Amino acid sequence: MASNMMLDGYIVESVNDNKKDGGQSATVGQPVPLTMPEPRPAPPSNDSNQEVPAKSEPVSMPVPLPTGVPAPPPAQPGAAGILEETVVEEKKTALRRSTTSSSSSSNSSSRDNKEKPTDYENIEFEVKDEEVISHDPILSRDVNALSYFVEEHGSLKPDYYVTLRGTHTEKRTRVVRRDGRDRIETYTVTIVDFEFSIDISSHLKKAKPIVYTVADHVPAFRGGMRMATEPNGPTRIESRRMVTSDEQDIQESWEQETESVGRPPWISRPRDGGRSDEEAYVGLANKPLASGRSVEEWLTDYIRSRRVVKDFKVTKSVYGWNTLSLSTSLTELVEAAGYRNTHPTGHISVEFTQSSKCVHIRSPNFVSKIFSSKLYIFLTCLILVFPFLWLWRRFWPGAGGKWAVMGTAFPIKHWELVRGTTPGETVEAAQVRLGGKDLVPAGERMKRLRVTPEGVWILRGTHESEWFREWQESILAAVKTGTKSEWLHKMKLQTEEERVNDIANNLDHV
Asked: Which residue intervals make up region (Disordered) (predicted)?
């Protein structure tokens, strides 16, 4: 069996002969140069002074082969042309495959970019006073970019911690010399007795935050410069009912109370003026997306607005703990450490702090940037421009607009339905159904389980009392030793006997 192959302009024939013993041998012939065309003479030119160089085809150098190998028969005329055409066709086929693969890759990349465009990752923003602020123009024209930015920054878990501080004042005297005479002057100084913070961020639920919207009947900023409601469903900004100053004050007081008692931020004030569940709202009626509009519709409402100075606010809230009651308990714990005995007039402060409180998306124009910069506000006040800008944004129709209708919530503890529960089921029936296993310890049943028309609910997460018991010894030790540090670590309160033993142990190295 013989086959031809090409080696740099030469045809080489391979011959395989079957041996009698079943083996095979191969002989490679001597290279035979292909017939190359002779250079064509240059055509005659009318200009006798102009010389046209003759064109010649490139000639490949022969490749030496081992000696003693028989040469193949002469190549048939036109064999080189056939091989060249084959090579050209193979190149065309490879080019088509490359184009198809490139097109497919381009389409796939296009799909990926559609899901998460690169431009969205390069949106400019800055952080001021624990608030994310962006004036990027793409957020005022592209609802997908706005949705991506809100989700990206609204879902970042904030830092949450409590700071305990004890101070007292002392009156001191000093001698001052005035007009050539020495006088005794009395002054007051504030002494810090202890100060430390405890991080609570680890107790926040690790899952994605809960996205919520404000109910239509709740006063909120809905595109105007005053709070408004939409009792009849979605309407234009001008048609939304503006609330009175008294209604706005009542709503702001309700929001402050909601934060202090740990109520979910989307729970609205009862219309009859009653009080809702102070610990955590239970039941399927607890729907975070309470607005008649979806989140995307509110974002579209912001983008379509022609107002000059616009501000879309996304509030970030930590809820679940009654910080008002917990602050009272921490104050009593500090007093139990004997702080009032040493400093009867001392002042104890307990403050819960949350970082990254909200996200602001504002218009990209320069006037809007003035309201975002304290420096610009100060400079424009010096030239008496800012007061007029403030009045113009506040009262001129179509000048300013605020949106504060949505947010993200991070629970420390929350209610969820017991697995497999049914309407009307009792706690005892749920325990029997789950194999007789107690859902919670008997001492915590009242605060951990609730029976509603939907079934049995269980409280998940860290309770205030659990955290308090975990840190009470460390807080007592820090107050007694007058600890002043940024973060408090777990400490053990030593007894008098342990303290004496530590003193004695210090002598062991003598």
From this structure: 15-79, 91-120, 254-274
Over its C-alpha atoms, the chain yields an Rg (Å, rounded) of 41
**Burial (Cβ within 10 Å: 0-12, 13-18, ≥19) of residue 10:** buried
User: Is the C-alpha dihedral spanning 367, 373, 377, 378 positive or negative?
Assistant: negative
Alpha carbon distance 66, 173 (integer Å): 112
Q: Which position has the token pair 């503006």?
A: 242
pTM for the model: 0.69
Q: Which amino acid is at 84?
A: E
Residue 398 lies in a domain: yes
Distance separating alpha carbons of residues 59 and 41, to the nearest angstrom: 18
Q: Which two tokens stand for residue 71?
A: 């040469």
Please report whether residue 504 resides in a domain: no
Would you say residue 50 lies in a domain? no
End-to-end CA distance of the chain: 100
Domain span holding position 359: 126-160+199-411
- Domain total of the chain: 1
Query: For residues 326 and 334, what is the distance between their CA atoms, to the nearest angstrom?
Result: 12
Q: pLDDT in tens for each of the 510 residues of the chain?
A: 444 444 444 444 444 444 444 444 444 444 444 444 444 544 444 444 444 444 444 444 444 444 444 444 444 444 444 434 444 455 445 444 444 444 444 444 444 444 556 677 789 999 988 899 999 999 999 999 999 999 999 999 999 999 999 999 998 888 888 888 888 889 899 999 999 999 999 999 877 899 999 999 999 999 999 999 998 888 899 889 999 999 999 999 999 999 999 889 998 887 655 555 544 466 665 789 989 999 999 999 999 999 999 999 999 999 999 999 999 999 999 999 889 888 888 999 999 999 989 999 999 999 999 999 999 999 999 999 999 999 999 999 889 999 999 999 999 988 888 888 888 888 888 877 776 666 665 555 556 788 888 888 888 888 899 999 999 999 999 999 999 998 998 777 666 666 667 776 777 766
- Which residue from 405, 314, 308, 312 is spatially nearest to 364, judged by alpha carbons? 308
- Domain assignment present for residue 338? The answer is yes
Is beta strand 413-417 parallel, antiparallel or unpaired with respect to 358-362? unpaired
Three-state SS at 8: coil
User: Residue 35 is encoded by which pair of tokens?
Assistant: 């017939």
Between CA 405 and CA 150 the distance in angstroms is 13
Handedness of CA 307, 309, 312, 313 (dihedral sign): negative
**Which secondary-structure segment (H or E) carries 261?**
helix 245-261
| Residue 170: strand pairing partners | 189
